[in-house]
Amino acid sequence: MGKETVFAPQTTVALDGARVLVNGQPTYAGRPGVEGLLFNVRTVNATFDDTLNRMGWWDDDGTHPENDHAGYGPWRSAESAAANTARFIAALPEYRAWGILAVNLSFQGGHPLQGKTWIAEGKGSAGARPNGQRDWIHNSGFRADGSLDPDHARRITSVIEACDRLGMVVILQCFYFGQDTVFRDEDAIRRAVDEAVDLVCGRGYTNVIIEIANEVMLGHYHHEILKPARVAELIERARRGAIERHGRRLPVSTSEAALNNRKQWTEEEIDRVFSASDCVFIHGGDGIDHGAVGDLTLVARKIHDLRARPWYRERPRPIIGNEFNVRATVEAAVSRGVSAGLHSTPYLQTMWPPKWGVWENEALWFFRRVRELTGAAGTDPYHREG
User: Where are the domains of the chain?
Assistant: First the structure.
C-alpha cells in the first residue's frame, strides 16, 4: 500500500515505559495514581454483522421482552450492522465524558450471546466447538483467504476516525476464537495480519494499538499459530510490516487467558510472547482468592509475575487490563498502576443487542469509579451514587 495516507490524524498514542501517552502527554496528567493509565471498555461487537442473516436471535421487533432496552427491529444484514455501528459512534462522546480513553474493537467480534442461557448457543466457550461459532454466525472482517471484507473494514475505520476526533484510542483486535475457523490455513492468517496493519498504517491512523488475538490460550483457538507457542510470530510480523511497508512503528500485543495456568502457558511461552509485545493485555474475571490477605486476586498475581520477569525489568511496558468484570479486580489492578477495562456484566456492552453508552445499572460502578479517579465530568444517568 506504500506510505501515502488518506487521513489527517488528530490523536496519537504512544507507549513510554509503563505509561500510555496521548498526543505526547501522559493520560490523565496530574491525577494521582492513574496518570499514564488507559481506562477502556470492551465493545467488540460495535462492528458486528451476521452475514448468514438467517437467525432471529438478533431481532428486536417488539416481541422480545428480554431485549426491551433496544427496540432495534428485525436484523437485516448489512443495513442493521451499519445502524449498530452508527449508534456506537453516537455514544462515544458519552464514554469520553466519563473518562474512558479507549474502546476495544474486533475484526471478528466477541460472543454476542454470552450469558443468554435460554439460547443453547449462548452456553460455553465458542472455542470449544469444532467450527467455533461459524455454524450459526458469520461475523468476520476477514474472508477465508485473509483478505478484508470491505463492509466490515468501513465500519472499523469509521469508529477509528470518530475516536481520533475525540482524542480516544482504539485497541484493535484481529482474531476471535469463535470465528478463527473462517481461515483456510495459516497463510490466510498471516495475510489477515498484513491487511489489518496496512489498513491502519495505510490510512494514517495513529490512535490504534493492535491486539493480535483475544484470549490466547491452548483451549481456545483452532489454528496453532494463534496459540501460546507461536502467536509471537504474528506480533513480530505486524510490527515488522508497519516498519517495512509504511516506515512507522505500530504498537502490537495480544491478550491472554489463564496465564497463571502452566498447563495453558509455559514459562517460556510467557516470556516469548510478551517480551515481543509493546504492552501486555491481561484479562481477569471474578477469580478472587477468598481467604487471602488483602486484595490478592488472580490479576494481582499476574501483574506481580510479569513485573518480576527479566524482559520487563529491562524494559517496563504498560500492562493494560481490557477485560475485567468485578470491582475487586479493577481495584487490585489500579492500586498497582495497571489500566482497567470493563467487560460488563451481564455483558450488555458486548452481548446482542447492545445499548451503547453509560446507562447499564450493573456496570455503573465501573464508570463511576473511573470518573472519580480521573476527575471526568460524566453525568450520572440515575442522578445518584451507590
Answer: 38-374
